[in-house]
Amino acid sequence: MAAEPLSNGAAYQSVPESYVLPGDKRPGSSPSSAAAIPVVDLGGDDPDRIVKQIMGAGREFGFFQVINHGVPGQVMGEMMSSAEEFFGLPTEEKMVLYSTDSKKLPRFHTSIGNDQEKLLYWRDCLKLGCYPLEQFRHQWPQKPARLRAALEAYTTAVRAVALRLLRLTAAGLGLDEGHFEGELTAGPVIMNVNHYVPCPEPSLTMGLAPHCDPNVVTVLADNGVCGLQARQRGSGGGWVDVEPLPGALVVNFGHQMEVVSNGALRGGEHRVVTNARAARTSLATFVMPAMGCAVAAAPGMVPDGEAPQYRPFTYQEFMGAYTAAIGDRDAVLARFQNKD
């Protein structure tokens, strides 16, 4: 169904039926955890400490917050305020970009944004191609007026942080520092600008269902409103609130990191819950392989005499399976588990 975007101005006193999830899919149907998401400090001159922090967080959660990352506060602030301003534009100006075609860029939509959805999630999203700049710059929305300059500065800075983190992660895995450069990060950088309006009955719906991102690494900033939750590793692992630190970036590894590391690092499973008090806006920046990239466990990650956990595949093949499984972590990985 093509749904009316939540940010178009309607005042919701109750959750519309199309957003009400079955009982076993609601936020309170699975356990929570009092654990805290690790914080990685990129400041200082001790790379061994940073690598150790990344590896510990990657094993337990596939998630961590990053401080002293080098992205100027003004750059982050301009991007966030421009994003929030977009969702406040008059309906007719936003709807020019509305589409249920998942391949279209830029694209404004609600929930997941396709015509086959029977149940909807409490989210509006502006999906943007960001990098290479020369490929996507001309497509960016004209309004709000400052969005284009903010997007260019923010994308450039955050991509640099992602690549630095991948070099440190490669070192932690015992790989060549440049292992994640080249085809594994040669795909376009895509951003989901997510917006969750206040929800009158948060216990009935979700902003996003549990999932892992399909790519290598995702870097996220938000406006300080809670909602993101990460699952702790292990059977029955509970959901942990990602309490946003001022000025921090949130990083999660995607499925491709789990495959390349042969399970040493976790693809960070996460979900988004809603709240009745304040709108939440987040900027999720995805660094991904080229579609034709061959993905497999890296040399040295598989013990002698053992088969890798996952068979080799192309990223294009993986994305086909991911879309078919609607992002379900176990269903996606089962398609590629090595049966040998």
From TrEMBL:
Gene3D superfamilies assigned to the protein according to its UniProt record, in alphabetical order: B-lactam Antibiotic, Isopenicillin N Synthase, Chain (2.60.120.330)
One Pfam family from the record: DIOX_N
Matches recorded under SUPFAM superfamilies: Clavaminate synthase-like (SSF51197)
Region Disordered, residue ranges: 18-37
Annotated GO MF terms: metal ion binding; oxidoreductase activity
Comp. bias intervals (Low complexity): 28-37
Domain Fe2OG dioxygenase: 185-289
Lineage top rank: taxon: Eukaryota
Keywords assigned: Iron, Metal-binding, Oxidoreductase
Family: Belongs to the iron/ascorbate-dependent oxidoreductase family.
Name of the protein this chain belongs to: Fe2OG dioxygenase domain-containing protein
Source species of the chain: Panicum hallii
